[in-house]
Amino acid sequence: MDRAQKEKVVEELGQIFESSGVVVVAHYAGMTVAQMQDLRAKMRDVGGSVRVAKNTLAKIALEGKPSAKMADLLTGMTVMAYSEDPVAAAKVCEAYAKGNDKFQILGGAMGHEVLDLNGVKAVAAMPSREELLAQIVSCIGAPASNIAGAIGAPASNIASILSTIEEKAAA
What sign results for the dihedral spanned by CA atoms 116, 122, 124, 128? Predict the structure, then answer.
């Protein structure tokens, strides 16, 4: 790599560290190409991505960024998984690490916060953005459906009473 290519990689990594909701760092030593492609595909499905870069270039890119303390995690063969959704990359990495012992999560960063392994697991346990939106919509819709049920209930009660009276009169 010449100097221009290195500068381009540092700039790209800087963009990743600034714009991502979460960045997860993991060791991937011993993983096959097929396993890495599988991880990339799973990340792509949730709108995330996976990046392998030289640790020295990543550390340079981290300088002056909110997650600069994450540089301590960049040792050995590391891979960075990231997504704009603050939960998606952590969920995929956590699930992938359970099925592949060669993929070991070291930690990560979420905004200004540097996460250790337990922090990444805690983030992975959180509901995703879509799940939160669905919960909010159901909370907003619940009172309206309860009101509609309460308003409709007396009318149905009256109708059932009238039909009972008709049946008794006919008998």
Answer: negative
pLDDT at 20: 85
- First and final CA of the chain: distance in angstroms? 97
For residues 58 and 20, is the Cβ–Cβ distance under 8 A? Answer: no
Tell me what pLDDT residue 25 has: 93
Identify the CA nearest to 17 among candidates 88, 65, 57, 79.
Answer: 65
Structure tokens at 133: 């939106």
Q: What is the mean pLDDT of the chain?
A: 85
Compute the residue count for the chain: 171
- Whether residue 73 contacts residue 5, with contact meaning beta carbons closer than 8 Å, is answered with no
82 DSSP β-pair partners: 23, 49
Nearest-CA neighbor of 7 among 53, 59, 72, 61? 61
Assigned token pair, 75: 């040792």
Q: Which residue has the tokens 């396993």?
A: 35
**Pairing of the two strands 113-115 and 48-51:** unpaired
Q: Which of 56-65, 76-85, 97-106, 130-139 has the lowest mean pLDDT?
A: 130-139
